[in-house]
Amino acid sequence: MADLASVTDHIRSAVGDNSGLGKTVKIDLGDTGKIFIDGASVPNSVTNEDKPADATVRISWDDFIALSEGRLDPMMAFMQGKLKIDGDMMIAQKLAPLLKR
Q1: Pfam families annotated for this entry (predicted)?
Q2: What is the pTM of this model?
């Protein structure tokens, strides 16, 4: 079973030194924690800090795992209100490929 640390590591390796995001994104997993992706600095960094971001994606842990495993479509999750985005929507769309497992 995945936990926050392993998911953070996975995203860190997917992001690499330069994800091309050019912005910061926070994934807010509620009580489980946060994943902060700094795609604006080089090299890019991924931490569990709770910092302001250009875009914040709010999703439950279970829905996040389903999304990363391809069992939940990002657009459907958004339409159903399972996935909420505050801030820059374009950044959130660029994020999707980085979350796949």
Answers
A1: SCP2
A2: 0.92
Question: Any idea of the CA torsion for 89, 92, 94, 95, to the nearest 10 degrees?
Answer: 180
pLDDT at 19: 87
Question: What is the distance between the alpha carbons of residues 13 and 8, in angstroms, rounded to a whole number?
Answer: 9
CB 78 within 8 A of CB 94: no
DSSP-based three-state secondary structure for 36: strand
> 69-84: string of b/e by CB count within 10 Å (b at 16+)?
eeebebeebbeeebbe
Percent residues over pLDDT 90 in the chain: 75
* pLDDT on residue 61: 97
pLDDT band at 1 (very low <50, low <70, confident <90, very high): low
Dist CA 23 CA 58 (whole Å): 17
Angle, to 10 degrees, between the axis of helix 89-99 and the axis of helix 61-68? Answer: 70
